[in-house]
Fold this protein.
Amino acid sequence: MTGEPTRPPRAPGGAAAGGPGLFVTFEGGDGAGKTTQAAQLEQWLREQGREVVRTREPGGTEVGVLVRDIVLHHRGHVAPRAEALLYAADRAHHVETVVRPSIARGDVVIQDRYLDSSVAYQGAGRVLDADDVRSLSLWATGGLLPDVTVLLDLDPAVARARLDADDKPFDRLEAEKAEFHERVRAGFLALAASEPDRFLVLDAALPADQLAGRIREVVASRLA
Ligand code: TYD
C-alpha cells in the first residue's frame, strides 16, 4: 500500500500530466458507511500520488452550507418542490465552482451524495416524479454525471441501529419513518439497475476493509 508517491508532474496550466480527472460519488441510505469508505478511498488515492478533492452535497461550498442548514435543520414544513430546488441550487453552485474545475485539473473528486440522492430521497416522498427530479439536477449541473457511483446498500433497520448507536441528533430526513427509508433504498437500487456501467452496488453489511478493497479495484481500473 505504501511506497513512493507516483504523482506525475503537473503540466503547465495546472492539468495533471497523468490524464483527466475522475468523478466518484458515494450513495446510499443514512448510516450505510459512505463517509468511512470515502475517507479510505481518499487515503489510498493519495498514497498512489493522486490529487484528491473530498467533498459532499448538500454543503460542499459556502453557499451550500447555508442551503444545507435550511434543508436539514429547518423546523416545519418545506414544500417538496422547494426542497428539490434547494438541493438542485446547492448542486448547481457546487458543480460549477468545485467539481468541474477539479476534474478539469486532473484531480479525483470523491463526493458524498449527488443527484442520485435527490432522485431517491425527493422521489421517495411520493409527491415528486423521479424523472422530473433527475431532469432538474441535470439542468442544474449542465448534465454532469459521475464516472463511478458506489452504492452502499443496507437494510434500513440495520442502518437505523448504527445511527442510534452514534448518539447524534437526527436531521429532518433521518427522522423519517422506516417505510420512507425502504422507498429510498428501492429508489437507489432501481437507479443502479438502470445504469449498471456507472454503479458499483455493494452490500454495506460486509466488513469495511472488504468494501474498501472492492472500491479500490473499480476506481483503479477506471484510472488505468
Ligand atoms: P448526509 O450529508 O449524508 O448526512 P450526514 O451528515 O448526517 O451523514 O446527507 C444529509 C441528508 O440529505 C440525507 O438524509 C439525504 C439528504 N439528501 C436529499 O434528500 N437529497 C439530496 O439531493 C441530497 C444530496 C441529500
